TrEMBL record:
Pfam families: 7tm_4
Family classification: Belongs to the G-protein coupled receptor 1 family.
Keyword tags: Cell membrane, G-protein coupled receptor, Membrane, Olfaction, Receptor, Sensory transduction, Transducer, Transmembrane, Transmembrane helix
Annotated CDD domains: 7tmA_OR51-like (cd15222)
Protein name per its UniProtKB record: Olfactory receptor
């Protein structure tokens, strides 16, 4: 197969993968995937709607939750077309430029979600450790500035990464191992030297999700120390209770991400469908679970959602 250089990169066509070995069952497999996308999109849209329309939810904690729902919606819309397109219509082809665009949104929203989780940890830290200055520190103008900073951070880190990808030549198989374009997956198909790409990709992940995870952990070490200093057992329980939803969101974001990394690195000889399923779980579980967690664990959100459906909360 002839090689492709940078000037002809736009002519490359990649082929996405459904569930290897289960091609004859893809119509049935699409049903749970379709349901998960429907739950994720409707759930996060509902969270955004109640926060925007319910004046009692116009507080920093819920503004940050709306940012989380926005990034989850972004992740869903970044992959739903290619994933369901494969299952329903067996449309596997994707151009190089479209692939680059999808990677930009997938990785961009992933980095943004990591940043939002960090900001939410900071919010809990201020609320528990310095409650008297909470409203003074987290003003509306600062929350807006934080929102812009999250978007800028999530997108600017990707620009050089994707530009480096466009300089590569692709002369091997153009079959990707996922239902969407994933940077390490695309990079592996190149016949050029990818050391710079790999190093920059690792540095980007460490400086975003890696750094965020360390700072989130540090925030909770300080929160736990502060809570344990509270004399009242009931007050300690109440303080920890305000963190349960956020800790759950952190877990369902980082555990699938770590699992996908481990599968790519250590499970190279695992059945091909394992890689595809883990990759889809990595992007679908957080958007599906976050609205459920916050609706169940956060009383104000639960009441606002029930109010939309004219159901009187218990």
């Amino acid at each position: 197969m002839s090689s492709f250089n940078q000037s002809t990169a736009h002519s490359i066509v990649f082929f996405l993968t459904g569930i290897p070995g289960l091609e004859t069952s893809q119509a049935w497999i699409s049903i749970p995937f379709c349901c998960l996308y429907a739950i994720a999109i409707s759930g996060n849209s509902m969270i955004l709607f109640v926060i925007i329309t319910e004046s009692s939810l116009h507080e920093p904690m819920y503004y940050f939750l709306s940012m989380l729902s926005f990034t989850d919606l972004g992740l869903c819309f970044s992959t739903v077309v290619t994933v369901l397109g494969i299952f329903w219509f067996n449309v596997r082809e994707i151009s190089f430029d479209a692939c680059i665009g999808q990677m930009f949104f997938i990785h961009g929203f992933t980095f943004m979600e990591s940043s939002v989780l960090l900001v939410m940890a900071f919010d809990r830290f201020i609320a528990i450790c310095n409650p008297l200055r909470y409203a003074m520190i987290l003003t509306n103008s600062r929350i807006i500035a934080v929102g812009f900073a999250i978007v800028i951070r999530g997108t600017t880190a990707l620009v050089p990464l994707l530009l480096l990808l466009k300089r590569l030549s692709f002369c091997r198989s153009h079959v990707l191992h996922h239902s969407y374009c994933f940077h390490p997956d695309v990079m592996k198909l190149s016949c050029s030297d990818t050391k710079i790409n790999s190093a920059f990709g690792l540095a980007t992940v460490i400086s975003t999700a890696g750094l965020d995870s360390v700072l989130i952990l540090l925030s909770y070490v300080l929160i736990i120390h502060s809570v344990l200093c509270i004399a009242s057992k009931e007050e300690r329980k109440k303080a920890f209770g305000t963190c349960v939803s956020h800790l759950s969101a952190v877990a369902i974001f980082y555990i699938p991400m770590i699992s996908l990394s481990l599968v790519h690195r250590f499970a190279k000889h695992a059945p091909p469908f394992v890689h595809t399923l883990v990759a889809n779980i990595y992007l679908l579980i957080p958007p599906v679970m976050n609205p459920i967690i916050y609706s169940v664990k956060t009383k104000q959100i639960r009441k606002a959602v029930l109010k939309v459906f004219f159901i009187k909360p218990p």
